[in-house]
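Figure 3 (text version): structure tokens given as input.
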């Protein structure tokens, strides 16, 4: 039979061993935290087959337009990000070349050079989203003078802009780049496939794993799809479908058609509905909450990889109010959405 002193010594030894395990676990946790911080990112966007992944897990990108973010006060942005997460969105679309309503908030100038304080604001926003597990779409556009001056009109200027953005945000893995918004439209927005290929190659030279796309206005043809995924080499296609009352009923079928063409071409990439219809744009048609929901469901059920709740300035109204994501200097986005848009947000939980 053990003496009282022996029992006491065994209990002390057990306690020391247990405490040692705790200290070891704490040390291991500290190393993991340090390693993660050293890696420079918490949220990593990747692609697996026809789907996006976030930190290795397949995720449907459910997003919202947030175009003029670089002109919004930081306190507005933080409150909007809280709402973005509350409603279940996991990505937002921000323009690095945005100028509207008399204010240019672009992160690069017309010749593609870095432009402060807006480039620093973009870096801050991407970092804040990284902490929250949110993906950021960073979009460039040559513009058509409707929202500020034409810009990046030469390949050299466009290349400088791409280099500036990719270098500035290289440490973060929670964003992708759209090289040219609606680059197929034959006005000053137009970016040729040859230019796109060189711009895409410049991104990959600086940051080989960065995801790259170039958005397309309308329903893409099979020949255009071939150019995008085989010759230019985009990582996914970003489609801006036509904006009319028939659109919500067509999205599923269009997705299936694109998937079938990709199978025939021998390369499958995600299909991302990056800028669908919105309120305040199409004369004679103001989409309802049910139509937003139908379009989203069509995208999900047909195998698309992402969809955006698009919003913008109200057309044919003096002052274009509400301006929504197009101008957030005086009011944050969620304060500018109308009753029908809020009704859609409240319906999202039914999916």
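Below: residues designed for each position.
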């Amino acid at each position: 039979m053990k003496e009282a002193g022996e029992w006491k010594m065994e209990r002390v030894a057990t306690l020391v061993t247990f405490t040692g395990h705790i200290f070891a676990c704490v040390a291991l946790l500290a190393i993991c935290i340090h390693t993660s911080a050293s890696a420079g990112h918490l949220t990593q966007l990747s692609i697996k087959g026809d789907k996006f992944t976030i930190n290795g897990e397949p995720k449907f990108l459910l997003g919202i337009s947030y175009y003029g973010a670089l002109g919004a006060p930081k306190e507005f942005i933080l409150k909007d990000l809280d709402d973005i997460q509350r409603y279940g969105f996991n990505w937002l679309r921000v323009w690095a070349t945005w100028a509207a309503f008399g204010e240019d908030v672009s992160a690069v100038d017309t010749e593609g050079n870095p432009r402060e304080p807006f480039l620093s604001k973009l870096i801050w926003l991407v970092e804040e989203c990284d902490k929250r597990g949110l993906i950021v779409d960073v979009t460039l556009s040559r513009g058509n003078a409707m929202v500020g001056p034409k810009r990046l009109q030469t390949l050299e200027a466009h290349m400088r802009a791409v280099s500036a953005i990719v270098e500035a945000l290289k440490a973060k893995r929670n964003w992708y780049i759209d090289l040219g918004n609606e680059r197929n439209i034959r006005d000053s927005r137009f970016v040729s496939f040859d230019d796109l290929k060189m711009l895409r190659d410049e991104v990959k030279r600086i940051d080989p794993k960065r995801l790259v796309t170039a958005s397309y206005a309308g329903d893409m043809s099979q020949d255009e799809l071939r150019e995008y995924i085989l010759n230019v080499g985009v990582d996914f296609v970003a489609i801006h479908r036509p904006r009319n009352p028939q659109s919500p009923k067509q999205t599923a079928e269009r997705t299936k058609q694109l998937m079938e063409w990709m199978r025939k071409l021998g390369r499958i990439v995600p299909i991302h509905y990056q800028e669908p219809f919105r309120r305040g744009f199409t004369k004679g048609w103001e989409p309802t909450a049910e139509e937003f929901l139908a379009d989203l469901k069509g995208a999900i059920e047909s195998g698309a990889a992402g969809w955006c709740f698009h919003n913008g300035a109200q057309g044919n109204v003096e002052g274009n109010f509400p301006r929504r994501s197009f101008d957030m200097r005086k009011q944050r986005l969620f304060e500018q959405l109308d009753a029908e848009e809020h009704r859609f947000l409240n319906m999202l939980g039914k999916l």
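The chain has two domains: 1-39, 44-350.
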